[in-house]
Amino acid sequence: xxxxxxxxxxxxxxxxxxxxxxxxxxxxxxxxxxxxxxxxxxxxxxxxxxxxxxxxxxxxxxxxxxxxxxxxxxxxxxxxxxxxxxxxxxxxxxxxxxxxxxxxxxxxxxxxxxxxxxxxxxxxxxxxxxxxxxxxxxxxxxxxxxxxxxxxxxxxxxxxxxxxxxxxxxxxxxxxxxxxxxxxxxxxxxxxxxxxxxxxxxxxxxxxxxxxxxxxxxxxxxxxxxxxxxxxxxxxxxxxxxxxxxxxxxxxxxxxxxxxxxxxxxxxxxxxxxxxxxxxxxxxxxxxxxxxxxxxxxxxxxxxxxxxxxxxxxxxxxxxxxxxxxxxxxxxxxxxxxxxxxxxxxxxxxxxxxxxxxxxxxxxxxxxxxxxxxxxxxxxxxxxxxxxxxxxxxxxxxxxxxxxxxxxxxxxxxxxxxxxxx
Amino acid sequence: xxxxxxxxxxxxxxxxxxxxxxxxxxxxxxxxxxxxxxxxxxxxxxxxxxxxxxxxxxxxxxxxxxxxxxxxxxxxxxxxxxxxxxxxxxxxxxxxxxxxxxxxxxxxxxxxxxxxxxxxxxxxxxxxxxxxxxxxxxxxxxxxxxxxxxxxxxxxxxxxxxxxxxxxxxxxxxxxxxxxxxxxxxx
Lengths: 422, 187
Hints:
Chain A contains 8 helices and 26 strands. Chain A has helices spanning about 10, 25-30, 135-140, 170-175, 185-195, 220-225, 275, 390-395, and strands at about 15, 20, 75, 85-90, 105-110, 120-125, 130-135, 145-150, 175-185, 200-205, 215-220, 225-230, 235, 245-250, 260-265, 280-285, 290, 300-305, 315-325, 330-335, 345, 345-350, 360-365, 370-380, 410, 415-420. Chain A has a 5-stranded mixed beta sheet. In chain A, strands 8, 9, 12, 13 and 14 form a 5-stranded antiparallel beta sheet that branches. A 5-stranded antiparallel beta sheet of chain A has the order 21-20-24-25-26, with no helix packed on it. In chain A, a hairpin with a 6-residue loop joins β10 (about 200-205) and β11. The longest helix of chain A has 8 residues, at about 185-195. Chain A is globular and about 75 Å long. Chain A starts with 8 loop residues before the first helix and ends with a strand. Chain B has helices at about 5-25, 30-35, 45-50, 70-80, 80-85, 120-130, 140-155; strands at about 40-45, 65-70, 165, 180. Chain B is built from 7 helices and 4 strands. In chain B, α1 runs antiparallel to α2 (about 30-35). Classes of the chains: A mainly beta (about 425), B mainly alpha (about 190). β17 (about 290) of chain A pairs parallel with β4 (about 180) of chain B, so a sheet runs across the interface.
């Protein structure tokens, strides 16, 4: 069960766990031994037309290849609305740790406002020495910092509460998580300028959208690592992610990272807004609900293979997936091909950053037989991602939010991959 | 993760140090502290803030003048809310606002204002800021009080003639007031 510590080539090729999982260093050890496919009879390589004429000209803002048109978000909206709902990131069709801006997940409570950046204001008031109003232009003159962090909707993975495994892609099941480099002004700097009253212990953050989305945030988080983000992966924050500015609370549930941020009010307690009482609370079996579960818990999932990506015959595959924790860095990801009976440690792709998506990989020699793929994250605090049934046993079936149970993909002998409960 | 480098971080540390010094040195120190920061916000007057300061906490602080009862709220609800929340607030196509009493500990919990919401003040806060679609923030304070009263009365939490205003709304004891537990990691 424990991975081999040996460095020599032959040992690296030995199974790391049952059902074909190989040592994570196998590709480093040298790939020659893996190239076992016989030379096939093939047509001579052709010189294609795009190699014979000049290509297209420049455009001001680039777009993906038109061959990639299938790589897009899927979304659903509440009845009678067009923008009250969520759009999901195609985790199974992307790789690396960064989510392209056009594919970042969205959750909006009354559509995406069309905000004129010159007319937008950020007000900081309440329990402060002097209330301050900032324009985008003035904020852009502040010293900025950048950090790569994930955002995950508190309701991501909600379908795992269902009695039967919902048949959807990983995008449909877990697509409300994304990761970007955010650049902006440290909130603590602005709060210090306003002068924090010693009675203040929370703040209310409010958006300029029609829902006036609002959440209470502990002041300690605001002073620690909160940011008023102006840039997302190098360009201004996208409208769907809060243009011209959003609150960024690394590791905390997505809903609290208030988009279209227009107001911060320092208070002596939580405001008890609609979204922190009637929503985003975890209803347990006894009828009591857990409130203020702010950081998203350690979690992982395999993005490839995953449902909808059919295996193309036996042979070597690079299992790839994502892991993250709202409490810090991912320390370890283990992968199982036999439904959790045996585990092999995956390689983590650098950089491994606190509260960022972390890419993991593990070679797998699929023998063409049935398999049950799982991944299990451990974060730097030692917390281990629970199984789905452990989580349900603790909470009951109606918790809805913060569902971080282990995901299972069943692989059938024909290569079809389906969502399963192991 | 705390940022361990960068100008902003050093600035924040310097500010913290200076502010600590200020606490000992008296009021002149705070000017020095501010000089370290860009300080580009303009100081807002109460009049400037008033229209934006719409959040209402459980104490009811900030509730505006005005009042309303369920009888008045019923007509407004029928005209502006029922299309989404159902006749009498029973739900469909969107959230149910009424019903679900006693259901939270069952296999089919029904979370409504009446069965789940811990504070009546949240009703005023949310209706005023977000409702009704598609004209958020279009209701008068009188209308918001009347709608809050209507929804509370439909849930049998207050009577048909009870008047909701800045004094009475925060006093309403919601049935699920004690139904929330502070989250602890691992639960």
